Amino acid sequence: MANFMKRGKTWQYRVSYMDGQNQRQYVNKSGFATKRAAQEAAAEVERQYRRGADLGERSVTLLEYWDRWIKLYKSGKHATVTEKRYGIIRRQLARHFGEDQQLKTITKSDWQEFLNAYAAGEGRRNGLPRSKDSASKLNGYVRAMANAAVDDQIIFANFTSGAILSGEKGKASELKYLQTADFKKLLSHAVAHASLDKVYNYIIATAVLTGARFSEVIGLDWPNVDLDKAVLHIRHTWDYNYHTGFAPTKNESSVRDVDIPQELVTLLRQLKKEQQEYRLRAGYRDPYDLVFRNSQKEIPSNSAINKDLRMIEKKLAISPLITFHGLRHTHVSYLLSQGVDISYISHRIGHANIGITMTVYSHLLKDAERSQIKHTLEALSIL
User: Fold this and answer.
1) In 3D, which of 145, 158, 156 has the Cα closest to residue 27?
2) What is the C-alpha separation between 372 and 383, in angstroms, rounded?
3) Cβ density class 268-281: b for 16+ within 10 Å, e for less
4) Of 38, 146, 260, 374, which one's alpha carbon is 20 to 30 angstroms from that of 284?
5) Residue closest to 14 by CA, chosen among 23, 32, 2
6) What residues have CB less than 8 Å from 228, skipping those under 6 apart?
7) Which residues touch 169 (CB under 8 Å, ≥6 apart)?
8) Domains in the chain, ordered, with CATH?
9) Rounded distance between C-alpha atoms, residue 244 and residue 125, angstroms
10) Residue of 209, 238, 239, 204 whose CA lies nearest to 221
11) Beta strand pairing status for 10-18 and 24-32?
């Protein structure tokens, strides 16, 4: 049963209902420009109640529901660096909406105002605008939360739907990778100089022959290396940022098996033999049984590996100079140049979907397309 009253220049509804303990409760909302608007909103509340919605839950605040959603669907399922992002987003929501704003009261306009302020740099120490990509990621997380709230019948529509994203255009990062000649030069050097003391050569060779991410490579443990079948089982990563040990992969698709060439099998057998002999002499047992722990019982850091890679590149007169992540791009570039199917490459490098692969490597795909056009025309010309 709904009642309506005018308060100043706006209208308010009050819907009464019986809760789970058969006690009468009320839902109120004000601020409607017309009585008709209040009646339509109240009718929607009553419809949801008849469908089984718990109207008492509708008093939950934005931050309470965010915390609940994170705990149920996100916590413990992603890398530490990703999970830290949830706290950053929460602080942004708290700064703009406050601690007490109910989830049900947030309108599409409220959310658009927040996104505009966020993109303009609200809450940022330097006051500079944020990138459009940053606004898009934040909106994506909150949209997923709001979808869950709709399913829980706490809100009746997703307030992020149709949001317009603004913000600075992010820096276009040039996709740096090695041409085939330099790729072979780097690989040959890494294979020739690999040792337990210079474990970075093993790491570089593994990266360039698998396309795996840095955290995936250094997170390899011997139980997940099948040298007889020539397969690496990527099941987790190594948390090199916060040093908490094994961490989840970037996404579900990153959990995968990667077939490796015989050259890498031979190289890893050599490393395993070196490592076993050293550990026997030193009386050392690695609790994680990591593949790339060096003779100092350490896992090289990302910055250390990049420094070693840069040193090798300069020594070999390789240009352009690339970072460790550039080895991943080099792997993909080489496979595309050899006509390997893009869907297999996407799976091999652990992308969440083929669309990501096609976006990241769009210019390389254009090169491959030109080659296919030439091949097609040559084939048709002999008919």
Assistant:
1) 156
2) 17
3) beebeebbeebbee
4) 260
5) 2
6) none
7) 131, 132
8) 2-59 (no CATH), 62-151 (1.10.150), 180-376 (1.10.443.10)
9) 29
10) 238
11) antiparallel
Q: In what order do the strands lie in the sheet with 225-226?
A: 225-226, 231-234, 256-259
Compute and round to an integer the Cα radius of gyration of the chain. 28
CA angle in degrees (0–180, nearest 5) for 299-303-304: 55
Residue 172: predicted pLDDT: 47
In eight-state DSSP terms, residue 54 is -
Residue (of 270, 265, 185, 195) closest to 231 by Cα position: 265
Query: At which residue do the structure tokens 């090695």 appear?
Result: 178
Listed residue (215, 255, 204) closest to 237, CA to CA: 215
The 3-class SS string of 148-167 reads: HHHHCCCCCCCCCCCCCCCC
230-281 pLDDT, tens digit per residue, is: 999 999 999 988 888 999 998 889 999 999 999 999 999 999 999 999 999 9
pLDDT tens for each residue of 287-337: 999 999 999 999 999 999 999 999 999 999 999 999 999 999 999 999 998
Q: Encode 183-240 in three state secondary structure.
A: HHHHHHHHHHHCCCCCHHHHHHHHHHHHCCCHHHHHCCEHHHEECCCCEEEECCEECC
Distance (Å, whole) CA 132 – CA 126: 17
Q: Which helix (H) or strand (E) holds 109?
A: helix 108-120
CA distance linking residue 67 with residue 89, whole number of Å: 11
- Is the confidence at residue 123, as pLDDT, over 90? no
Which of 170, 166, 62, 168 lies closest to 117, judged by CA? 166
The SS3 assignment for 30 reads strand
Q: What number of CA atoms fall less than 13 Å from residue 13's CA on the CB side?
A: 20
| CA distance linking residue 204 with residue 327, whole number of Å | 8
Cβ–Cβ contacts within 10 Å for residue 300, how many? 20
How many degrees, rounded to 5, is the angle at CA 240 between CA 235 and CA 243?
Answer: 100
* pTM of this structure: 0.69
267: Cβ–Cβ under 8 A, 6 or more apart, which residues? Answer: 191, 194, 202, 205, 206
